[in-house]
Amino acid sequence: MGNNWDGTADVIKSTGDFAKIGRLNVIPDKDQRLAEIYSDPVKLGYFLGIRQTVGEGHDQFVDDMYSTPDGSAVVVSRPSFADVVSIDLATGKINWRFPVSGYRSDHMAVSPDGQRVAVSASTSNTVHVLDIKTGREAGSFKTGDKPHENVFTDGGTYIWNMSIGDVNTPLDAPELDATKGDRRITIVDASTFTQVKVIDMRDRLDAFGRQDMSDAVRPVAFTPDESKLYFQVSFFNGFFEYDVASDKITRMKTLPKNPATSEDRTTWVNDSRHHGISMSPRGDKLCIAGTMDDYTTVVDRASLREGPLVSVSKPYWATVSGDGKSCVISESGADQVTAISFATGRKVVSVPVGDHPQRVRLGHVAANWTGSAAG
Predict the structure, then answer these.
(1) What is the pTM of this model?
(2) Angle (deg, nearest 10), helices 30-38 and 41-52
(3) Alpha carbon 157 to chain centroid distance?
């Protein structure tokens, strides 16, 4: 569990009582990084810009993280430091550091074999693919504006990147949506990094009759057979279903609004009304984080009927528990992680974590690990 404003990662059990195991400091080199930033006027400008915009007045120290397959290290993207680091879980020391192109790092994805990690460099419209053990760059590819989510598909054959455009401008009215930039899905060969296909959801949304919707694809979830993609878009309390083979949007689900949520779009965090979606291992249920509406709900995929609206505080991400029985969401507004049962749609347990939990991922640590020496 990455605590973005803290610069820490909490490790909790992935099943059962989700008990806390230990904490990792993901910015052990903070003083060195800040010295570099403050000595460079351009870097400082971006650093302060991140704090005042996407950081909501806070520095962003951990966006995404994955453990190595053997559980010896965790790889972390650090937006405010514009880098990716590997941290030794035993010592808390940095194994390697990769500065991304541009001035901000963002979402990552790890290949199915656990050997490579793809990271979005959001200000340079680039995705870097790194060797997870050494940090060496295997390759990179260009994307639309502000690359965001990355997903490996077909057993690691392809990488899908979703670019979301400029989410920090105040031009949030539907008629000004085109000002947000070039937003598209870029699919590349994961070995050669050559472009295979570009999907512009603007065309697909228009064909579906929703010219009013943003085409900024946010978090996504594939069915187990990867035949369908479920995705959220900016400003929308719901999600869409996209059929990969026919290249068409086939269904849309609108979820309830919280009457207490302001309809002023400029008050929504980074243009996202709902941000976080995961799918049960059997592919029969979707878990939705209703970020600005302060709830999480489990949706039946066949009927698209939602279950109970579980009250949570600014949920920012959704993943799946280690046993596949629960959806696990980060409550960034309450500094806790909450598990929701896929079977009942009800809350299982909440666990306190650090300041502004954001990305939550499944990972591995040694059986006797309780925190790093430098934690």
Answers:
(1) 0.96
(2) 110
(3) 21
Query: Rounded CA gap, 1 and 125, in Å?
Result: 26
Six-digit token string for 150: 């990355």
Is the pLDDT at 327 greater than 60, yes or no?
Answer: yes
How many other β-carbons are positioned within 10 Å of the β-carbon of residue 200?
14
Note whether 13 and 21 are within 8 A (CB). Answer: yes
Cβ partners under 8 Å of residue 322, min gap 6: 13, 14, 15, 362
Beta-ladder partners of 127: 120, 141
Calculate the dihedral angle through the C-alpha atoms of 87, 25, 62, 114, rounding to the nearest 10 degrees: 30
206's CB contacts (< 8 A; 6+ apart) are none
Q: CB burial class (10 A; 0-12, 13-18, 19+) of residue 252?
A: middle
Q: In angstroms, rounded to a whole number, what is the distance separating the alpha carbons of residues 227 and 246?
A: 10
Which amino acid type is present at position 69?
A: P
At 205-263, the pLDDT tens digits run 999 999 999 999 999 999 999 999 999 999 999 999 999 999 999 999 999 999 999 99
What are the angstrom distances between the C-alpha of 129 and each of 124, 177, 269, 279?
Answer: 14, 30, 28, 25
Question: Do 77 and 84 form a contact (C-beta atoms < 8 A)?
Answer: yes
Distance CA 118, CA 137 (A): 10
For the record, the structure tokens of 355 come out as 């300041």
Write out the H or E segment, with its range, that includes residue 47.
helix 41-52
Predicted confidence (pLDDT) at residue 374 exceeds the cutoff of 90: no
SS3 288: strand
Enter the DSSP assignment of 321. -
What 3-state DSSP class applies to 10?
strand
